[in-house]
Structures are given as C-alpha cells and as structure tokens.
Design goal:
By secondary structure, the protein is an alpha+beta fold. The chain is built from 18 helices and 14 strands. The strands form 3 sheets. Strands 1-2-7-3-5-4 form a 6-stranded mixed sheet, sandwiched between helices. A 6-stranded mixed sheet has the order 9-14-10-13-12-11, sandwiched between helices. A two-stranded antiparallel sheet has the order 6-8. A hairpin with a 5-residue loop joins β1 and β2 (71-75). It is globular and about 80 Å long. The chain starts with a helix and ends with a helix.
C-alpha cells in the first residue's frame, strides 16, 4: 500500500510541475492580453456608480395627510427592494357580540377576491412580480404588507389598494376560511404557549382587551360574509388608515397612491373601547408530561408611556431566558439573569423566559415557564419566578454590568431590525397609529442611554404593585393557588 501512495505522489508532483511550466511559457501576446483584461482595471465603457459615503444618515420619514384623512408616509432606503403596507386602526377590541372573531377572519381573507380581480389573478400578479404579501390581525391594529422590487412598486400599490379597499367576502371563500379557522381553534389546544398568552388577556382584563383575538368556536358558527362586510365598513375608514412604505421616494408614492385613495369614505369619529386591568387566574387541565405557566403583571400606560416602555424593553432583555436545550444560538442570551440563575441550575425547567404583550394604553409583562418531570416541580418553578421578579424590584440586586449588557444588546437588536425594509415600513405605520407621528430612533436610544438602575427598580416595583394574572396548562393541580401567589408578592 505504501509504495502505491509514494508513486501516486510522484505522479502528482510531475503533473503540477508540467502545469507550472506551461504557465511560465505563456507567449508575450497572451501575457499582454492578460494584463489588459485584468480585473484590477475598470472595463472600458462601464459606468461605475459612486461609492456610498462613510457616514450615511437616514432619510427622514415624510408624512402627507390626504383631504379625507388617510396618512401616506415613507422613508427612502437605498437598495433594489421596497415594502409598502396598509395599517388600520382596527382589531378585536372594536368587535361586539355579533362581530366577535371577525378580525381573525379578515386576516385569513386578505388578498382574496376583489371587485376587480379574482384570487387567481392576484396570485398570478404576485408571482410575476416575485412579491411577498402578508396580513396580520392584533387587538388594536391590522396590517397588510407587500414586499417587492422597486421596479414593481406601481403594480404593488395598485394591487394592495385593491385588496384592502375592494374585498368581496364571497360566501364560498368565507366558508373555506371558517373551516380553516375551526382547525386553528382546535390546534390551539395543542399549542400551550399561544393558548396561555390568549388566556392572559381573557382573564386579566375586563372590557375590550378581554375580547378574544382568535375566534371562539361559537362565533365561527354565526359569522358570514354580511357580518364581515358590516364590520369592515364600520372600521376600515379613511381617518383610521395609514399607507406606509420603506425604500420609496415620497413624491413617487403620493403620485401612485393619491388617485386610488382620495375618495375613500371617511367615517364618523370612534372612541377607543375601554378596558380595565383586573388580574385573575385561568387553568386548563391537559394530559401532558409538561406543565406550562404564564405569570404576568400590568404595564400601565402601554406604548404611550414611552419612557416606561423603553425601560420595559431593556428589562425584558436583562431578564432574558430561553429553552434548556438551546438559547437561540451559540452564546445568545446565555448571560441573561434567567439563563444564569434558573436554566443553568434547575434541570426540570424546560423553558423559562421573560415576555411582554404591550398595547397603546396598557400591557402585560411577566415570565413564561415550562417544567417537565417530576410534575410537582412546577410549584417550585413558580416560586422561583416570583423570586426573580421580586429581585429586579429590589435595590442593589441588579448590577451595572448587567444593565450595561442589556442596554447594549437591546440597542443592537433595535438597530439590526431597522436594517429590514419590512420592519421599517411596519415601524412607520404602527407609530403613526399609536403616536400620531414617527419618533426618531435617536429619541429611544437616548432614553436607553440615560437609563439607570433606579429606573429599572422603580419600574419593576410599579409592575409588581398590580394584581398578578396567571394562566396554566397541563397538570394544573400542582400549580400553586392564585391566593398563594398574591400573598407571596405582597
């Protein structure tokens, strides 16, 4: 075997030597041609675009309000792609008894048949433009987005406006989506995390925020095209709409959109439905090896309390957490408090992380945890969660190093997200609906930079002063009673 290897090596050396010699024997003409065609020299007749400057400032967000109240906003972003979206001040909080669950159906009926296009035509147009579209419903807002190359922006705006302004809600299509919604409701029982986040709102609030976001089974039995159309006509009015885009020149966007939007009907002024946070307890018994618990408290003021909302965002990063198997990638989140103090110590904890669900005037912040065998460890895990929340509300428990790391990580995450044209368009639209304008990113970065340990402690104390909201799934008999949790937090 060894002699064969040596002979093969000699043959390889000979071949390489012959190739090198051939390279050295290039003719003078070939060598001259190679120098002329070198990639180090600009190709003749090719115009090279100017390089971007070392420091490139963001384009301003420009906003124009049409006479009927629709706001058209955009921020130009370099690059070949653009994203445009409709943002509607409508969601499940505006539903009444008859229209319960309609927002869920509107999300599923997005980009279907319109007065001018069939669903098949819409699909063909999207495919020809290589576009990505999406729709999402939340408790306070609905979003329809269209992401494509800038060259297709005229078509994108026209199709998007047609789909949002002229939906038909054909009964056959409504029936198909109702069937899919029923499957989704049944699957919700198998998705504990989503199930519990929904349960937190249902038990933690009275009023509009207690309206279900996912249509309940009984609502699906009565919803039809006429009910959907009625809700749509009442809520999709010009004064509650924002058309936002990133990667599009503002004057060009106005030129495309205004002829399609100027005569959209303006509705009567609508007062935002009221909600009251009350706290409470929800338990769903399920046959499972794992038990899931969400423990939350009110974020008073929600997004409209901008400074507190910024502190909450940093606090969520500071607490962090994740799953016991993977924290989301090498090193990600491994220095957060919940990862170091809980996941590294207790092997019966499957996941343990901070979460937030925030609205314009209120919100929820807390800890979501999952435990595995032994099943009675869930009581210990809930107690650990309470201790971690009390710790951040105790002066001296959080260090400057932890706060600095959390602030830097949050700033990095925010800036990285704003590299996405889809997120920029969404940020513009949602801020206009919430604040009435788009606040510059420097404003929020300055809030983070000025944040102190006292700010974290004060905000945490304010959180824990509200009644807790608990939701659990699995072997709920082992979850501590709600009254016990309330006493531990006093």
């Amino acid at each position: 075997m060894l002699p064969r290897l040596r002979s093969s090596a000699r043959l390889l050396r000979k071949l390489l030597g012959a190739e090198a010699a051939a390279g050295r024997r290039l003719s003078a003409a070939d060598a001259s041609a190679a120098r002329e065609n070198s990639l180090l020299r600009p190709l003749p007749g090719l115009d090279i675009p100017p390089s971007l400057p070392d420091q490139l400032s963001r384009s301003p967000t420009r906003v124009t309000t049409l006479p009927n109240g629709i706001r058209v906003a955009s921020e130009d972003v370099p690059g070949p792609s653009a994203c445009v979206g409709f943002f509607v001040n409508s969601g499940s909080i505006y539903e009444t008894g008859e229209t319960t669950g309609v927002s869920h159906l509107l999300e599923k009926l997005a980009f279907k048949d319109t007065k001018h296009r069939s669903h098949l035509q819409i699909v063909h147009e999207l495919e020809s433009a290589g576009a990505n579209v999406g729709a999402s419903a939340s408790r306070e807002q609905m979003v329809y987005s269209y992401d494509t190359l800038k060259a297709y922006m005229p078509q994108a705006v026209e199709v998007l406006v047609d789909c949002v302004r002229n939906p038909l809600f054909l009964q056959d299509e409504v029936e198909r989506q109702l069937a899919l919604a029923r499957e989704e409701v049944q699957d919700l029982q198998k998705n504990p995390e989503r199930f519990l986040h929904e349960a937190l709102n249902l038990v933690g609030y009275t009023g509009a925020f207690a309206n279900p976001l996912i249509a309940p089974e009984e609502a699906l039995g009565r919803i039809n095209g006429n009910i959907i159309q009625k809700f749509y006509n009442e809520n999709f009015t010009a004064d509650r709409l924002v058309l936002a885009a990133s990667g599009v020149d503002h004057e060009k966007l106005l030129e495309l959109a205004e002829p399609l939007l100027y005569d959209w009907h303006k509705g009567s002024p609508v007062e935002k439905p009221k909600s009251t946070y009350v706290g409470g307890d929800s338990r769903h018994k399920a046959d499972s090896d794992a038990t899931h618990v969400a423990l939350a408290f009110e974020v008073p003021g929600g997004w409209l309390q901008e400074r507190d909302a910024t502190i909450m965002t940093v606090l969520q990063t500071l607490m962090g957490g994740g799953g016991s198997f993977s924290s989301g990638g090498p090193g990600k989140g491994m220095h957060s408090r919940l990862y170091l103090r809980v996941l590294n110590k207790y092997h019966s904890v499957e996941s343990f992380s901070a979460f937030s669900n925030v609205y314009d005037n209120s919100g929820l912040f807390g800890i979501y945890l999952t435990t595995i065998q032994p099943s009675d460890f869930v009581a210990k895990a809930v107690d650990i969660a309470i201790n971690e929340l009390i710790a951040i509300a105790t002066p001296g428990e959080v260090t400057e190093v932890e706060l600095k790391r959390a602030k830097n990580s949050t700033i990095s995450s925010v800036l990285l997200n704003l590299e996405s044209r889809v997120i920029v368009a969404e940020d513009i639209g949602r801020q206009l609906l919430t604040y009435g304008n788009r606040k510059p990113i420097d404003y929020f970065l300055e809030c983070m930079d000025e944040m102190t340990l006292d700010d974290i402690t004060t905000f945490a104390q304010k959180l824990l002063s509200s009644r807790p909201t608990m939701a659990s799934w699995g072997d709920v008999d082992k979850v501590p009673p709600y009254e016990f949790v309330c006493k531990r937090l006093q």
